[in-house]
Every structure is written in structure tokens, then in C-alpha cells.
């Protein structure tokens, strides 16, 4: 009894948990006492009630006494079977009074409500990160501990969560228990089905609070936000290169190991990424799955369609933090930044020449080998780089898909539009670090620099005379040919 009020004490003096009634405090003390008495004789874990210990022991024995009489699936606990049965009946008895969404289980309902309240009651005492769900917190702690307690008895692979193991096992069994009632497509996990259904409904519930763009998946929104923040949390432990998405890091690591796990069953070619294999297979089928609804153009990859759509919308989400210039693609920004830094990370192992982009190095190497693997199917002219063939084909078709939005002049190449626009803007981003002169084109700067160095790389194969520019060599050759 409290000396001051004469009322029952409302606080347990061991754990300091408060209670409104003395009876609740007494019961709580009994539970705490029993915790020390009811222990698992296999792993030593303690429980407050004997039924909890009984359920726990089934983890060790593998016993699943509760069986679904519709699909035959078995469970360790009666409550899990009850929840499972609602998949068959469609029953969702728990309703959110804020958004009206319904749930088959109380725990899913409780977790959902925290989306509205923002409550994250589970805190990691190692890194300070907070979580709205107990299972997410438990999984997170295993990241620090490196613990992967769930092991596949077929291939030996280990997982930090039991549901990860369950999903993984379906890769061995081929089981796809979740079916779309619109198109009949099947999925390994329910979350994939939920996301897939949005392709039918057009629902995009995840919105970027910076630019307003919407996504069907929360993961896609998180990845998108890294465009704005520049965050690249996934780092390669071999070369220290960083990536915005974990799957990009996984694919990148294969460049070090040489692993190419995806093989084409038609021609046998192998690939580092599944998406590359899917795109490659379209070469055999001729199928272009992704269509632009503005101009009707089709693409093998969704990623290529997304880039193309920015031509219509004018969106340039990648911005240089040095000069403010914006770009359609992140790789274009990375390449552009090398103008400021002077970085040329790609080096020819034959002549030592360096390049700011890998594709330029590959094209350059064809000068040494004489290889021209890309051939025009109309006139049979060959090219050392694929992009040159694409550009060349437009001389046959007359296609000029790139239009200047200032004067409406059209061009066959996107680069030509960018260069042309500098006539309107007066922009000259390429500066000579010797005399300070500026140029609108990189090639013009390269040619200019030779006036300082005296370099004459273009040599006549008849008389050995050298020239600083290729066009001067072409004019000179006319002397020999007449």
C-alpha cells in the first residue's frame, strides 16, 4: 500500500511497469515468476505460460499438428491456421477506420495503423534505427549479428528470416501459390501478386514528395528518391564503386568474378543480368514489348522506354552540382562531370590513350584491330561502333527524330541537337587549359590543343606526311589520286 494515499501501489518494483489496478500487478508478478520456471530444455528460452513453450518446441521438432482441410498446408499453431483459412474464405475482419482498408490478421492491421500514426516502437540500440514492425526489427538485428538461422535442406543456403527460406524453397519446387484472377499469372509470394495487380488497375500508391512522381512499389520510390539525394549506399568491396540499388551492386560484382549465370537457350550466349538475357531474347523473336504511347516507337527494354519518354516530357532529372546542367540519364551526368574533373578512367592497353567513357575506348580499339563488326543490311557498309550504324541507316531512311525546340530544325542524332542548340545559347563548355580559349564541341578543343602540342596524328600512308586534322589529310590525298 502507498503510504501517502493508502491505495495499492501501481508500479512493479522490479521492471517498473505501471498498473491501474492492484490485481493486474499481482498477476503480472506471477507471470514474471513463472517465466523463470518454464524453460525450453533444448535452447533454454523462457516462457510465461506452458502453452507458449509447447508451441515453441515445435520449432525444434518440426511438428505441425494444425492442417488446412482445403489445401493441406500445415501449421505449428492454431492461430496461424485460422489466419491461413482466411486466404480461402477471403475474410478480412479487421478494418482501418482511417482509410477503410481491411486485413485478415490483427498483427497486419496493427502494423498498417502505424503507417497513419508514424509510430515506430522498435529501436535498435546499435545503430539507432527505428521500426514499425517487430519482425522487421528482429530481421534488422540479424544484419548486425550476421545471423542466418534458417537453412535450406536442399542446397544449404541460409537466410535471416523464415519467410525468406519459404520463398527460396519454391525456386526448388516450382510452387507458385498466388494467382492473379485477371490474367491467371502465378507468383512465388503474395507481395509480388499485389504489385502485379497494379499493372491491371494502374494504381501507383507511392508518391515522391519532392517531384510528385508515383510508383507501384515502395522499393521503386525509395530507389527514385536517391536520384534527388545522390545517395549510393551499396559499395563494392573490390573497387569501392557505389550504387543506388543493391541489385546493381550484385550485377557489378560479376564484372570482377566473370560470372554470367543467365544463358540464352537459343544461341547459348551468357549474361551477367537476367534483364540483359530477356532483352537479348527479343533479338531472336523480334519482339519489342515496350511502346511509347506518344509516338508509337517500340523498345526491347522498359528502361529504354523510360529514357525515351523524357524526350517528349523534357524531364531532365540528373543535375550537375558544379555547373547546373541537367541530363536525361544518370550515366550522361557521370560522363559530363568528367569534363570538369578531366578524369579519363578508360585506358587503351595498346597505345596508352585514355578516354572518359568506356564505349569510346571500345571504338578506339577497333582502330588497332581494324574490326568493323556492324554492317548495314542495305548497302553493306561496315562500322566499328553500333551507334555509327544506327546513324548511318538514317541516311537511307531520311529519319530525323531529334528536333530543336527553339527553331524547329530536325536532326538525325541527339548529339547534333545538343551541339546545334549551342548556336542559340552561345554555350562553349570546352576550355583550353593552355590559352583559355573555349569551344562548343569537344572535338574542336582536341583539334585546337594540337596547335600547342604540335601533334599530327593523321598520317598519309603514301608519302608519310602528317596532319593535325583528318580533313586536312583527306584534302592532301587528292594530290596523290588526282
Automatic annotation (TrEMBL):
Pfam families found in the cross-reference section: zf-C2H2, zf-H2C2_2
InterPro entries, per database record: Ikaros_C2H2-ZF, Znf_C2H2_sf, Znf_C2H2_type
Domain of life, per lineage: Eukaryota
The UniProt record lists the keyword RNA-binding: no
C2H2-type domain residues: 38-65, 66-93, 94-121, 122-149, 150-177, 178-205, 206-233, 234-261, 262-289, 290-317, 318-345, 346-373, 374-401, 402-429, 430-457, 458-482
GO BP annotation list: regulation of transcription by RNA polymerase II
GO cellular component, one term: nucleus
Subcellular location: Nucleus
Keyword terms: DNA-binding, Metal-binding, Nucleus, Repeat, Transcription, Transcription regulation, Zinc, Zinc-finger
SUPFAM superfamilies in alphabetical order: beta-beta-alpha zinc fingers (SSF57667)
Predominant place of localization: nucleus
Molecular function (Gene Ontology), one example: zinc ion binding
Name of this protein: Zinc finger protein 271-like isoform X3
Biological source species: Octopus sinensis
Gene name, Swiss-Prot/TrEMBL: LOC115226301
Amino acid at each position: 500500500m502507498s503510504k501517502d494515499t493508502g491505495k495499492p501501489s501501481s508500479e512493479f518494483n522490479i521492471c517498473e511497469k505501471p498498473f491501474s489496478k492492484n490485481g493486474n500487478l499481482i498477476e503480472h508478478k506471477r507471470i514474471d515468476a513463472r517465466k523463470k520456471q518454464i524453460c525450453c530444455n533444448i535452447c533454454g528460452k523462457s516462457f510465461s505460460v506452458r502453452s507458449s513453450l509447447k508451441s515453441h518446441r515445435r520449432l525444434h521438432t518440426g511438428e505441425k499438428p494444425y492442417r488446412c482441410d482445403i489445401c493441406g498446408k500445415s501449421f505449428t499453431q492454431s492461430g496461424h491456421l485460422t489466419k491461413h483459412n482466411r486466404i480461402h474464405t477471403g475474410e478480412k475482419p479487421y478494418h482501418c477506420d482511417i482509410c477503410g482498408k481491411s486485413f485478415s490478421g490483427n498483427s497486419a492491421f496493427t502494423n498498417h495503423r502505424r503507417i497513419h500514426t508514424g509510430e515506430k516502437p522498435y529501436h535498435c540500440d546499435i545503430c539507432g534505427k527505428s521500426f514499425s514492425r517487430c519482425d522487421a526489427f528482429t530481421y534488422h538485428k540479424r544484419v548486425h549479428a550476421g545471423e542466418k538461422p534458417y537453412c535450406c535442406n536442399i542446397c544449404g543456403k541460409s537466410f535471416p528470416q523464415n519467410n525468406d527460406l519459404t520463398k527460396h524453397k519454391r525456386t526448388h519446387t516450382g510452387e507458385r501459390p498466388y494467382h492473379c484472377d485477371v490474367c491467371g499469372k502465378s507468383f512465388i509470394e503474395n507481395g509480388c501478386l499485389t504489385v502485379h495487380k497494379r499493372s491491371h488497375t494502374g494504381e501507383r500508391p507511392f508518391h515522391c514528395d519532392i517531384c510528385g512522381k508515383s510508383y507501384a512499389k515502395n522499393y521503386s520510390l525509395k530507389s527514385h528518391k536517391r536520384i534527388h539525394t545522390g545517395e549510393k549506399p551499396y559499395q563494392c568491396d573490390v573497387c569501392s564503386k557505389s550504387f543506388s540499388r543493391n541489385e546493381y551492386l550484385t550485377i557489378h560484382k560479376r564484372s570482377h568474378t566473370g560470372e554470367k549465370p543467365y544463358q540464352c537457350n537459343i544461341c547459348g550466349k551468357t549474361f551477367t543480368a537476367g534483364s540483359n538475357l530477356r532483352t537479348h531474347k527479343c533479338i531472336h523473336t523480334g519482339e519489342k514489348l515496350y511502346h511509347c504511347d506518344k509516338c508509337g516507337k517500340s523498345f526491347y527494354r522498359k528502361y529504354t522506354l523510360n529514357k525515351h519518354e523524357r524526350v517528349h516530357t523534357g524531364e531532365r532529372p540528373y543535375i550537375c552540382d558544379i555547373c547546373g546542367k541537367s541530363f536525361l540519364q544518370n550515366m550522361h551526368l557521370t560522363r559530363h562531370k568528367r569534363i570538369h574533373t578531366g578524369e579519363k578512367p578508360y585506358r587503351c592497353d595498346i597505345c596508352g590513350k585514355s578516354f572518359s567513357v568506356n564505349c569510346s575506348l571500345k571504338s578506339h580499339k577497333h582502330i588497332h584491330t581494324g574490326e568493323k563488326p556492324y554492317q548495314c543490311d542495305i548497302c553493306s557498309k561496315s562500322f566499328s561502333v553500333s551507334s555509327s550504324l544506327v546513324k548511318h541507316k538514317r541516311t537511307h531512311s531520311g529519319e530525323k527524330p531529334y528536333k530543336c525546340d527553339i527553331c524547329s530544325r530536325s536532326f538525325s542524332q541527339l548529339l547534333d541537337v545538343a551541339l546545334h542548340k549551342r548556336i542559340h545559347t552561345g554555350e562553349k563548355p570546352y576550355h583550353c587549359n593552355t590559352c583559355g580559349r573555349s569551344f562548343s564541341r569537344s572535338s574542336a578543343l582536341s583539334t585546337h590543343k594540337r596547335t600547342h602540342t604540335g601533334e599530327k596524328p593523321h598520317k598519309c600512308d603514301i608519302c608519310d606526311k602528317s596532319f593535325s586534322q583528318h580533313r586536312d589529310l583527306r584534302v592532301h590525298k587528292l594530290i596523290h589520286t588526282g
